[in-house]
Amino acid sequence: MDNKELKSEVHNYWNKQTCGTQFTKKEKYTKEFFEEIEADRYSKEPEIIEFADFKSGNGKKVLEVGVGAATDFLQWAKNGAILYGIDLTPEAVAYAEHRLKLYNLSAIEIKVSDAENLPFEDNFFDIVYSWGVIHHSPDTPKALSEIIRVLKPGGKAKIMVYNRKSALAYIFWIKHAGLKLKWNLSVADILWNKMESFGTKGYTTDEALELLKGKNVDTIKIATTITFYDKLKRFNIFMQLFAKLVLLLMDSKKAGWFLTIEFNKK
Ligand SMILES: C[S@@+](CC[C@H](N)C(=O)[O-])C[C@H]1O[C@@H](n2cnc3c(N)ncnc32)[C@H](O)[C@@H]1O
């Protein structure tokens, strides 16, 4: 499958069900619908709030790449960002438009676009934020280069990608390969084939640094966070004990599913 076909797969997967929307049964586009999605998101992923630092967007030109159901996008808007958002799917863009309108908020622009070809001029944004998106895009290095291109000198990128050497990734491998005796498959194979949209990748801290090598960036900060997902919090106590064991065997500084990347453009 070439990158064009792969991107079409990614588009179709996320356009069918925007992430987060599976956690509510409330009527689509209502306040209750969005509020349930928000409560669910920040209870499972509270680390987003500190990482994003939505207040820092006040009065700044902020671009969110891959808005999804627009839960974080709404927080940027509430905090007074001069806001732009894109997503590969019309479904996500429609969520973002409805969501802001419900709160009488607005963005300068929300549109269907590709992270690998951002429709913005060079040196334009103070902040580019992207949570859980560019590892789904076939050419992740291109998406990263685009983020750097549209940032102003001194502007800040805040990105989260999945960590391939995390407790969750290993547990996922045990489920989809280990227990099925498919030991020839790697963790990367399993993420590619089984984690959300087809072609999902996970990176290690060193690989994330490598992606930034030679780029026009400094003050790089890469970290991993042990998440709700690594702890198998959705599952029963035995599964949670198993997750604890896996985590005990790992270096806790590197074992988290969320790999956050921050840097400034020089
Ligand atoms: C896991 S969801 C994350 C959405 C949102 N950031 C969140 O945290 O809920 C992945 C999103 O990335 C979008 N996406 C994937 N590839 C993309 C690309 N090349 N350009 C723009 N958006 C993309 C999908 O359409 C989907 O909405």
Description of the molecule:
With 266 residues, the chain is α/β, with parallel strands linked by helices. It has one domain: 3-Layer(aba) Sandwich (Rossmann fold), CATH 3.40.50. The protein contains ten helices and seven strands. It has a seven-stranded mixed beta sheet with strand order 3-2-1-4-5-7-6, with helices on both faces. β2, α5 (90-102) and β3 (109-112) form a beta-alpha-beta unit. The longest helix has 14 residues, at 3-16. The chain is globular and about 50 Å long. The N and C termini lie far apart (36 Å). The mean pLDDT is 97. S-adenosylmethionine binds at residues 10, 14, 18-20, 66, 68-69, 86-89, 92, 114-116, 131-133, 136-137.
Termini distance? 36 Å
Helix content: 25-40%
Round the mean pLDDT to the nearest integer and report it: 97
> pLDDT under 50 segments (min length 5)?
none
Number of domains: 1
Given this structure, which CATH class is correct? Alpha Beta
β-strand amount: 15-25%
- SS element count, helices: 10
Gyration radius, in Å = 18 Å
Sequence of secondary-structure elements = HHHEHEHEEHEHHHEHE
Q: What ligands can be seen in this structure? A: S-adenosylmethionine
Number of strands: 7
Spatial strand arrangement across the major sheet:
3-2-1-4-5-7-6
Shape: globular
CATH topology type: Rossmann fold
Helix/strand/pairing class, anyone? alpha/beta
CATH architecture: 3-Layer(aba) Sandwich
CATH superfamily placement = Vaccinia Virus protein VP39
Major sheet size, sense and barrel closure? 7 strands, mixed
